[in-house]
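Researcher: For the record, we're logging two predictions in this thread. I'll number them. Prediction 1 follows.
Model: Prediction 1, sequence and structure:
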Amino acid sequence: MSDDAVAASAKGATFMVFVQVGSRAVTFALNQILLRFLSPQLLGVAVQLELYIISALYFSRESLRIATQRRSDGGVQAAINMSFLAIAAGLPIGALLAQIYLGTNYPDVPYLTTALRINELTVMVELLSEPGFVAVQQNMLYKTRGAAEATAVIMKTLTTAGLVLWGRHMDLDLGVLPFAAGELAYSASLTVVYLTQTAPVARLKEFTLLPKKIKPSTEYAFSLFSKPLLYLGASLYLQTGIKWLLTEGDKLLVSAFATLEDQGMYALSANYGGLIARMLFRPIEDSSRNLFAKLCAAPASEKANGKGEKRKSTNNIHQAANILRDLLRVYSIASLIAFAVGPTAAPLLLQLVAGSRWTDSGAGEVLATYCYCIPLLAINGVSEAFVAATASTKELQYQSVWMGAFSAGFAISAYVFLRVLEMGAKGLVLANCVNMALRIVFNLSFAKRFFGRNGVEFKLMDLLPNIYAVGMTAVVPSLLAQSQGLLGRYGLLGNLVRVGMIGGLFTAFL
């Protein structure tokens, strides 16, 4: 059973990576066309509206999504029933956040209020996909998820780009309407694919995508909602709020302290810098969370005896430890490449794809700094997925306390970098690095304790690259700087070749 879960998870993660790469390649090409017509100010406002959607969805469904990945006696149906609580929460949360945004000193951009109302609708449309999403996760239907996300991303980009180009052709200033329409196209496509693709599976496996009574029991509220999952979701809610603050805190700080132009510059750098994270790391994180939950879950009979925590299958725990160790080891080696070559290569690539208009604005330097954050995002993502999949309710509450402390650390570091050292958007990236590093320390400490009490050795030193690779990482930036005159006279192309040659040799050495 565990071998099947590992194989399915690995296959699903691989498929999701390929789907993400393919769909992002299409959207990447279209976005480069868009950048020629957008100003940093307009992109900055679009980021604020995107933050609204992310926040409304996050507070409506995140804790429930994590809770429904745990095993329940009600099976898939119990998890689907729980997803309707997210739909019910979406309307008041979306309306409240919209009112808060309109109550602030929001920017004077054409059709901003209309775009915000469209985004309110977008939140509800996407939440309607939750029963389908839960069915996909519970049955490990990665092809369905890949198809849904790829279709949604492509439809979003086509809609946004189409409206921007049409407005340009008709000499109309549509403001942020194209971005709102693109988000609605994304959510509508996602919902349609999820629900249509999971409906046949529901009939075959005898569950329904609508709320259905499980059985009269003291373990279920109204015979619909599993009380253990409800308690877990409630205990997670505070933690998800803190996690949201840590995840989206950079956007909040940029909105509070930076001009719209600076916000657009930071958004561009974060989008390019996070491209690898969205294409590669996020599918691995999602599939590994589901896998860790299955491998480290106690059998139902053991739970009934109250001895599940002590009698988990040793083989499954060993598998989980090996998978986590291998993932973190690969990420640590990839980190060396990002640290050594990324800061030099990033501004050159930005100039190639976005033009000198954006590099002259300082976005190239911000993107170079972001290269230090990308590996930390990857390591934090998979280690945090392990914590979410294996921690008990008490341990999750303990994590929430530490997340609060990390929020304070993030805020202090952001203040130092932004206000004291006046580093602008680069300082915000460095504050994010501090945030990620603190979270990684907690996650790895938890993993070591978890495996230790289950009789499995998990050495943190095994995750680190060898000393020779670390030494080369320190030397490569100097080589790149000293070799600038070698091919630099050939302009951008010569510099790309130079960085590619040195980076390729370094990668081969690793």
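Researcher: Logged. Prediction 2.
Model: Prediction 2, sequence and structure:
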Amino acid sequence: MGTTRPPGYVFRARTRVATGHTTHQTDAMTETETIAYDVVVLGAGPVGENVADRTRAAGLATAVVESELVGGECSYWACMPSKALLRPVIAQADARRLPGLRQAVQGPLDAAAVLARRNYFTSDWHDDGQVQWLDGIGADLYRGHGRLAGPRQVTVTGPDGDVTTLTARHAVVVATGSRAQLPGLPGLADVKPWTSREATSSQTVPGRLIVVGGGVVATEMATAWQALGSQVTVLVRGKGLLSRMEPFAGELVAESLTEAGADVRTGTSVESVTRENGTVVAVTDAGDRLEADEILFATGRAPRTDDIGLETVGLEPGSWLPVDDSLRVTGIEWLYATGDVNHRALLTHQGKYQARIAGNAIAARASGVPLLETDPWGAHAATADHHAVPQVVFTDPEAAAVGLSLAEAEQAGHRVRGVDVEFSSVAGAGLYADGYKGRARMVVDLEQEILRGVTFVGPGVGELIHSATVAVAGQVPISRLWHAVPSYPTVSEVWLRLLEAYRDQ
């Protein structure tokens, strides 16, 4: 798997010239170098890593360029730290729903211990282990700022200022991800607001926290920091939380946050933000003056494509990159875009899925194998990105969904029916927790009798969503779902209740 290297290590000590599926190695180290590879990947997050894994498995010489930490946003400022913060919160909430255990967990969470465990899961923001993994698959890592420099060319400016030019025989893959998008409020930069990065990496618990936004980052971080001891105020411009899910998802999460002590205000915009003597002062459109120690803006994402040389290949800097189903950028046969940058699904698991598709497609094209372009379920088509994207929001209760909501299905022109059940009708839910509160909905296509979407809201439902993903992605007919018998008494028995409700309507 390679040797451990200190943070900041620059892996540029070799020139590798690709010849077919082999490489010839010579020593070289100059201020300017040109090195040839089969594939060059911009970005060493989980998406870029998975592209490299697939291309290396196919025998293609692969270089990976990273300007920050190998492992990317997910490992250090998103998925891993946020879930490490949330897991004790959810475990405590579940425990308090069980007599006999409730009495043992009445005290507050040990915030220092929770933050220490979060630090462990980020490797204290060191990427030695991730570098070892890249070494283990035989990919070459270049630390520095990578930019396209024309067709099949990438320049890397290293920490020492040296510039290396990498050329790609077959493909360049953009996997640079996205960044938090801040609103254009005057003076906001001087306030030094939190984004998702600060919210997942803070080493202290703010006494008061304002959260601006109502999406996944906003609701998860409000859940975590309220439980860790902050007094949280959530300001949502729209009508409710989690607006891209079924309406009841946001309603149940807002109810739970309020019960936990958070102040959730919908239909509220922030007009101005200042920091006065260390205190954040936010003024709303209603004229309310709110004070806090920190303010988190979770108001959207922007592609990290503003300074990667898109203009050198005729593309607009800072833009999302449109792709076909093999993740190839529209109109450029050698350029691919995987993960957030193509704006198809801003989720780590979908980005990794796309990476596998792109890696397979690059390998097939490099070897001259024709792609099954007309096969929507072939090895080289990211079909699930269109209609079967799963997502879990790790709040209390959890909200999990795949496919289309009822409103989205109707807007798409499908003749559908929404089928709802309360988890109170499921024996396994009652055993899971006293007073288990939650709801499930499946969106049934009445013409094809398949599922267009499924949503679960309730404690622990994140572990249910893959069954729904299989049903939606596989277009399993309702008549066959009857024969997928859920074990008794589990929460999964909600599937039987949903099918019965559909039959009886």
